[in-house]
Design goal:
CATH class of the largest domain: Mainly Alpha
Structural class: alpha+beta
Strand order of the largest sheet: 11-10-16-15-9-12
Oligomer: single chain
Shape: elongated
Number of strands: 19
CATH superfamily of the largest domain: Multidrug efflux transporter AcrB transmembrane domain
CATH topology of the largest domain: Multidrug efflux transporter AcrB transmembrane fold
Largest sheet: 6 strands, mixed
């Protein structure tokens, strides 16, 4: 029964490893690996960042910008609520980054405004000062709400970056929070690091503002004071023939009329007139109503479509636009239009900044693999020689168990499509040493029993029986530690934990079951009177 089980395990290991061996043999020879792996219940090995190269990024979320964006939205919502409640006011705008200022016209307006805040905006703290008959009001967020927005922006940014990375087709990416504001990103095997960085780091904060055509933006570059409520942005234009990108100053109203948080759909279309790619966006019902009201109130004015602080286009509003859709034109290439669609579908709640960037080249990965394999081969060979010399025939049985142990580790990695890292290779070597340790315990116990004058069969039973508890206890406690590393570690640490767990499980099987079968065959079937130990 035990022999049949070992044969079945060996056959399963070979079946699991066969496609992976064929894949890497073909890739080394430069051939296209076969894609017909439907009969296999697994994929080939996934190599970690340190083995196949790729990109390591640490991004920091600008959480204070998330608060500013939220206050911008609240200013828009507050302005709409004031208009509907018919409370006399003027100049509702975000100021000082995370505050809202407005002027309440008359004492009655303040009473109605306080009631409005208490009912619809309880998270805003109200302060004011008197100016004649009017009140200059300032609103700020309560501390708890501010902290919630900042924390939520990091959590949301982590999930959005994970969704964006999925579009890159990267195998086994590692994306996790690091501290309060940082996100760790590892992309093994990424083909275009710059494109990946652009897609990951683009905030895709879309804003709609009115262009101030009453003044010339160029006259304010020399330091002349800007008109009240305006700001200078840059409008980006790209020459489709030369690919040269130029940016010219454009004066826009500082007030954001609408943001892109109401976008429900973004897709690439072809402009019927010029045959070039454009980006079409669709709003939800709230956004559609806002866009229709904005365009209706600003006919014959230019509407600046601002993406991450850069004006992509500024078309003239010829008439009120219903239907909740909008077109972004920007002399895009096909690739640029598709990348813009990706980020618009998953706009970040706040900008992110790369504070650490490291590119691992594939040649470095190949050198790491070569060094790791060489170290594993040398270490394994030394272990084989030591066991064969010191324990003679029993050592050869342990060496066979080590070969099977290595086969089972590789099969486990292939079966679960686990990621193999350089520390993972170290984990394999470590488990080989621990597997030998189990055989050393068993062999020494058997030697002690033989010295006490017991028969070979009795010494064999006693040796395995007495060593069993120590072997199981040491392996189980190490597996428990490795599970903690796997749960809370990332990247190379998790790779080390995976190979360590697989190695310990297989070493338990080979040291206890396989070597015992070999000993039993010689003692009970060959009837040997003396063990070579």
């Amino acid at each position: 029964m035990r022999v049949a089980m070992v044969i079945a395990v060996m056959a399963l290991g070979i079946v699991l490893l066969a496609p992976s061996i064929d894949y890497y043999r073909n890739r080394k020879e430069g051939d296209s690996p076969t894609k017909d792996n439907t009969i296999w219940p697994h994929k080939v090995f996934n190599l970690g960042l340190d083995l196949q190269g790729g990109m390591h990024l640490v991004m920091e979320v600008q959480t204070e910008k998330a608060v500013e964006t939220m206050m911008e939205r609240k200013a828009l919502a507050l302005s709409e609520a004031l208009r509907k409640a018919r409370i006399a006011h003027k100049d509702v705008e975000r100021v000082e980054g995370d505050k809202i200022s407005l002027t309440l016209l008359g004492p009655d307006a303040e009473t109605a405004f306080r009631a409005l805040l208490s009912k619809d905006f309880p998270e805003l703290v109200y302060t004011s000062r008197v100016e004649g008959q009017d009140r200059l009001a300032t609103l700020s967020l309560v501390a708890a709400e501010r902290d919630r927005i900042m924390k939520g922006s990091v959590e949301q940014a982590t999930e959005i970056i994970r969704n964006r990375v999925d579009t890159l087709g990267v195998t086994e990416p590692q994306i996790r929070r690091q501290g309060e504001r940082r996100i760790l990103i590892e992309l093994p095997g990424v083909k275009d690091p710059q494109r990946a960085k652009d897609i990951i780091g683009t905030a895709a904060q879309l804003e709609f503002k009115i262009v101030d055509d009453e003044h010339d933006a160029s006259q304010f570059e020399a330091g002349e004071r800007l008109p009240r409520g305006t700001e200078i942005l840059e409008q980006e234009k790209k020459d489709r023939d030369t690919g040269v990108v130029t940016r010219t100053p454009i004066l826009v109203k500082k007030k954001t009329l609408m943001t892109g948080d109401t976008i429900t759909k973004a897709e690439v279309k072809i402009d019927n007139q010029y045959g070039r790619p454009i980006v079409s966006i669709q709003f939800n019902s709230t956004g559609a109503a806002m866009f229709e009201r904005i365009t209706g109130a600003n006919v014959q004015k230019r509407l600046a479509i601002v993406l991450d602080g850069v004006v992509k286009s500024a078309p003239v509003i010829k008439e009120k636009i219903g239907g909740g859709s909008c077109i972004i034109e920007g002399s895009f290439t096909d690739a640029e239009a598709h990348d813009l669609v990706i980020v618009l579908r998953t706009a970040l709640p706040a900008p992110v900044k790369a504070i650490e960037e490291r590119i691992v080249g594939p040649s470095l990965g190949r050198d790491s693999i070569r060094s790791g394999v060489t170290a594993a081969a040398v270490g394994t060979a030394l272990v084989f020689i030591f066991m064969a010399v010191y324990y003679m025939g029993a050592g050869l049985a342990a060496d066979f168990a080590l070969i099977l142990n290595t086969l089972l580790i590789g099969a486990g990695l292939a079966a679960f499509s686990a990621t193999l890292t350089l520390p993972g290779i170290a984990g394999v070597i470590l488990t080989l040493g621990m597997a030998v340790d189990a055989n050393v315990l068993i062999n020494e116990r058997i030697r002690e029993e033989l010295r006490m004058g017991k028969t070979v069969a009795a010494a064999l039973d006693a040796g395995y029986g007495r060593a069993m508890h120590a072997i199981v206890d040491s392996n189980v406690t190490t597996i428990a530690t490795a599970l903690i590393l796997f749960q809370f570690g990332t990247g190379p640490i998790k790779g080390f934990a995976v190979t360590l767990i697989l190695g310990l499980l297989s070493s338990l099987f080979t040291a206890i079951v396989v070597t015992r079968i070999i000993f039993d065959w010689f003692v009970y079937y060959r009837r040997v009177k003396k063990l070579s130990i």
